[in-house]
Amino acid sequence: MNALTSQSDFLAETAAVRIAMAAPRSRFSLRLRDNLAPFEAALGLSLGGALGSRASAGERETLRLGPDEWMLHTSLADAGAVEAALSALYAAQPHSLVNVSAREVSFVIDGPRAAELLTLGCPRDIAKIAPGSGRRTVFDGVTVILWRDAPDAFRIDCWNSFAPHILDLLKTGARELAAEAP
After folding, report:
1. Tens of pLDDT along 22-71?
2. 8 within 8 A of 170, measured Cβ to Cβ
């Protein structure tokens, strides 16, 4: 899911935390109401659950951002299949599927102090985001999507235009955590 191609992909690495670019993914904003069943059948995964819940099947992964909104990640090769599957539903099940792949990048943050690093710019209580869930939130005033993959592993999706700013803050925080080490 968050595969890195090599150690050289790390943008910052200390004993406390590592920061890397996530492998490229296709990303879709999906908006729909009411009957989830046809969409779940077309995608091969569940869309139900509470806000912040995630589901995955194969290369596809969703995060429920709102009552009628999901972020869908999949492999680059699968993007056309997703578009075709949901396009076939449109006449009977109006919805919005927007490919936002070119708009965003993802950073992977992991390590024993990853959650602490995120408190540098995120006002949300990171401890309340359960592993396997996620949230739309802000990081230093920038709207991001935060995925918690494990107790000490996160992804941040952000718009390309804000990526340098977020990366600089993460690197600064990583250096500060490293300086605290005995």
Report:
1. 999 999 999 998 899 999 999 999 999 999 999 999 999 999 999 999 99
2. no
Of 102, 27, 96, 105, whose CA–CA distance to 60 is shortest? 27
Residues whose CB is less than 8 angstroms from the CB of residue 14 and which lie 6 or more positions away in sequence, other chains included: 111, 174, 175, 177, 178, 181
Helix (H, G, I), strand (E, B) or coil at 4: coil
Q: Contact 165/140 with Cβ under 8 angstroms?
A: yes
Q: What are phi and psi of 8, to 5 degrees?
A: -65, -10
Q: Which parts of the chain fold into alpha helices (H)? A: 37-43, 79-87, 114-118, 163-180
pLDDT band at 6 (very low <50, low <70, confident <90, very high): very low
Residue 111 burial by Cβ neighbours in a 10 Å radius (0-12, 13-18, 19+): buried
- Residue whose structure tokens are 């999507």: 145
